[in-house]
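hiii, so i know i said id send this last week but things got crazy w the move. better late than never?? heres the sequnce for the chain we talked about at the cafe, plus the structure i predicted for it. fair warning i was half asleep when i ran it
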Amino acid sequence: MYENRLVKKHMEEVVTESVKIGNSDGSGTPVEVIDSSGNINVGTSIKFGDGEYIEDTNDNELIKFAVTASAVNEITITNAATGGAPTISATGGDTNINLQLAAKGTGGIQLDNSENILDASGNELIEWGVTASAVNHVVISNDATGSGPNIGATGSDTNIDLNFDTKGTGVFQFNAKLALDLLGGAASASGLLMGVGTSANPATTSTASGIFAEFRTQSTATSGDSRGLYWRHDINGAAGGGDAARIFAKVTAAASTVRGSHISLDLDAAGSVSGFGAGVDAQLMLGAAAYDDDITVNNLEIYANAGATVTGRTSFLRPVIQGDATAVADVNANAFFIDFSNVTASASGLIDTDITALTGYGSLKVRCPDGVTRYIPITTGS
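okay and structure toks below
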């Protein structure tokens, strides 16, 4: 091996003859390092010391070399034919070798011209988009055992969104549970598809009139039935049970007005219903089968825990008419407490026409608007 240490060479004249380097004792065969055209040909190894470098034509450092004692791994640069890509790769004695690119200080690795990252087959894997004068960007961080890696937004702005866009009618697909870690809430333990918070660590806010989840939607379709939310739950296990939705408000302090759920049909000045309108539409749908079960359209239940003492007004139904005084009077004059629609009066029917005599059994207490308790009689008939 011919050991030559080339630091710098100023050439005042054009090289017209080849330059060869050999051993000083004349042994071995000299190696041509510069041919008659001025091309440098290295047929053997060139050794650089730590901190030595190759200069450009302006005598500035172009490539600088750093030496690691007892190194066994190195970089290999490979050119390519037409249609191929040159390669900078890690090679050496180790079986698995990383290739590390390191910037100086706060500098980064810069990819120019919005170039793509390709997979092993040469297909696009990641495409970079460039925004002029950008100040916000994405940060990807790994994590230790028990925690997942993170994709986040960072930059100069105080509050930065993280945007995910699909193409055309494409959708976001999640192949795992969507656990929301927001407002101090722990990841939901019981939510199979998604959720936030547990009984011990619920998502919490002190913001007045705070809304944890809000959807405001609108349909401009002139036909068909539009639905703001369609939720269907199929109970398909023998002896199974459950609810399509379980909604309740838990009161743990002295509150004012609280509702387990508040559902409204809001008809404004330009709104009307030509068919049927209902603030709440509860339906019991029966299949082609025989039923001897206890089933009902509405189940109104008051559950009293041990130690409960009730002295205020407690009721199963509380009809209220309120709003503008003139409009309230009009509603009051035309409203029915019960409207039997699509019910045929018949013997032994829901409206039983076969009853000719009534015998008192009891009565239902009704609190009237004047505060007086009155009664609806319950009778037997014959």
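btw Confidence is low (pLDDT under 50) at residues 1-15. thought thatd interest u
miss u guys!!
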